[in-house]
Here is the input.
Amino acid sequence: MADRKPYVISGRTGDWEVVMGLEVHAQVASNSKLFSGAATAFGNDPNTNVSLVDAAMPGMLPVINKFCVEQAVKTGLGINAKICNWSRFDRKNYFYPDLPQGYQISQFKSPIVGEGAIDVDADEGYTFTVGIERLHLEQDAGKSIHDLDPNATYVDLNRSGVALMEIVSRPDIRSPAEAAAYVKKLRSILIALGTCDGDMEKGNLRADVNVSVCRPGGYDHYKETGSFEKLGTRCEIKNVNSFRFIQMAAEFEARRQVDILEDGGKIDQETRLYNADKDETRSMRSKEDAHDYRYFPDPDLLPLELTGEYVASIRAKLPELPDQKRARFVKDYGLKEYDACVIASDAEKAAYFEAVAKGRDARLAANWVTQDLFGYLNKEGLELSQSPISAEQLGGLICLIADNTISGKIAKDVFQKMIATGDAAAKIVEREGLKQVTDTGAIEKVIDEVIAANPKQVQEIKDQRAAGHEKPKTLGWFVGQIMKASSGKANPAAVNEILTKKLGL
Amino acid sequence: MTNLTQLTLSDAVDGLKAKTFSAKEITQAFLSEIDKSNQHLNAYVVVTADKALKMAEASDAKLAKGKGGRLEGAPLGVKDLFCTAGVRTTACSNILGEFTPTYESTVTQNLWDQGAVMLGKLNMDEFAMGSSNETSRFGPPASPWRREGSNAKLTAGGSSGGSATAVSADLCLAATASDTGGSIRQPAAFTGTVGIKPTYGRASRYGMVAFASSLDQAGPLAKTVKDAALMLEIMCSADAKDSTSLHLPVPEWTKSVGKSIKGMRIGVPKEYRVDGMPEEIEKLWQQGVDWLKAAGAKIVDVSLPHTKYALPAYYIVAPAEASSNLARYDGIRYGARQSGDGSLTSTYETTRAKGFGTEVQRRLLIGTYVLSAGYYDAYYLRAQKVRTKILEDFEKAFEQCDALLTPATPSAAFGYGEKGDDPVAMYLNDIFTVTANLAGLPAIAVPAGVDSQGLPLGLQVIGKALDEEACFKVAAAIEQAAAFKARPKRWW
Here is the structure.
């Protein structure tokens, strides 16, 4: 396993390291909103999914959606976090047209989920742990639309009151790439749990990225003492909604901070926005402009009390999570860690793989799924759901390899033809006469012909062998010639066996 | 027909059931009385004559078949704090403009479900913030009561001043009201009517314009203890639309009225004997003690040591919650928008500066201040701790007694302008009532006598949580002993 190395920015005055913590906002997968019965469906006409409560009509009161609570608990369990049996909703007060109540109902002091941890696999091959500080439930705001009219802003309240989970990490992320990997892992867990659909394009999963830079050793100081004093001043980049943008925004921001510090400046703690077109962050508001949110417990709601039995009943229903799946793939299918990780990180991929592997050679299945199929899909920019080859069909191909009907090499051609025609492997093999020749008589005949036609090479092999080479080089050349002469249909194992015998090796 | 308006709610319901008179007749009697009187008394801010007559006709149809609910055909008034579908609801604030809800509050729906007839919406202090009803956008109502030999206009109390005026001037059989710090009980005491605030959570707050969520409770104003019990029984319900609603059955309180109080232990808290309390109030209180003793109750001296902190705590908690609850009145989605210079900030500022009256603005500023970063712990958190102490005081006192007897107000009704413009002098009106709100306890005000100038005075009975029955029993005993028969002399 590779080592975790700090992400270093080398400046004029020396090296800088990056420290990051993320606040991920994940929309709870639910049919209705956090405190009202209005639908959460995406794409409806503006202001159609709005109840009297969402529009904050006089005298309207919030009533907690039990399913959203269950989803939050499920998520907490999925990230190995402490479920708080007592939590409370607070009001975060500020004025904005897309916030009808004049306050957002959130959990400020007592969140529903406390500390947890997520193990993340970096692309470079190492694993790191991100501490989770808390997860809390809160309402989403509506949407202000500024570009429909030069003189007016329109407000769509469809999102107003939709349940969000805010998942706050510790500053345990040490590079922009790690940030993206962390969100990827978190997303895979949420999707496996069914608590968030993970659709980043629709904004259903988005991250506030906190970035600071420090001198080498600053982070270790934090780890030892828990003190942020040497981590540098952080800036928060709001609402970044793709893995790539998270990484790019963090890279830009870290560099920006280093440039300021190296010029003798200091970092202002502020909220920034990332502009993907220009690949830069710009200031949104400084700490001085920050609202005084006047948090206080929402008197319209009672504290949320969860019993141990309730939490246990949710734990009992938890689906298999990516890490468990990976372990099972290694154990039950004998997959390599890396292959298991790639497959298990995505519920859809995992289901596809299992359909291919079940009752078949799992290692072979893993190779074909990860290398051939995913390789093809990647190249073509296709999603697994758009794959021209079903799991059933790929399984059919693997059966043909396993029972020696075709060789691995022929299988590659058959795979291409399956993509082109959509036909089953067996049908293609039959139609094109690609069945492997295992008839030793037929193979012997071909071998005899090739030996007879190439006396010079026969002599070479004998010389190599005499010189003490266990596996004479020219032997491979012979195998190639024989396979060519049989149009690749000869069983390679049989060829090897007969050839060595005939050459007297 | 005028005398129909002077019936008690219970008698009117019986008369309707017995077909002595029709729902239409009694409704028309009230409408014509309102027509004559409201210009002088300003109790109603909306009169729903057509709706009332339609409801009365529907009631008559049911009554003719021997059917109908427990209030079938009984005309009631509704405090403008309750949202009423299709009827303008403004909480007597300019900021709500001509706001007309599409929905009905749970409390009023419960009344209509039992066949009650709606006469209209009653005046109140703006957003229920006030103790004299002077902060209403429609101007204050005039109490039907006057001091002997004086023409000075008196307050009917607040915030439910319109409800108290209407009930005491026979402009409805009974009315809905609400109580955040005494807004039912103080007007009841000022107008010789009965008003009860139930245990917090008994009455749903759904559809009731919020002032301070953790203190607001609906309750009735009525002519007798029995009427108040009947109204409260119907107004209360477990409501899934209000998360703070109690999921408990509503007891049959009407059956408590008239039950013996023999052997009940009545606590008299010494801290309610405040400096500068008029002798008449003191005498009335003692009179109450004597009546209850005579009825077989045992009198116990108790102490509620944190009482003096109740009013300051109340004037932190209530404005704090109000400052957040009233944030929704921003002129964006409904109500009276004032655009100012057209920018968003100017729209907010102008709408709220013009839409809210002075007292509401004062409380929003106080509330915003006490919740601000750096002040929260010193004010809001501390006030909440006081609240816990007050609750503990009551719990301790209730180990020794079954109910508490106190004066309802520190004085009889005062005249408009007599409190000057000193808000603190006005806030002191709530001194005996806020404790029950802070502790969530049921408390009833019942008329017990008149002062030397002929103005009504009330006593308050505070019960244990969920023990409205004790309030009704003790109040009924006082009502019987006091035989309060004083009526305002008609000057309007």
Q: What stands out?
A: Chain B has a mean pLDDT of 96.
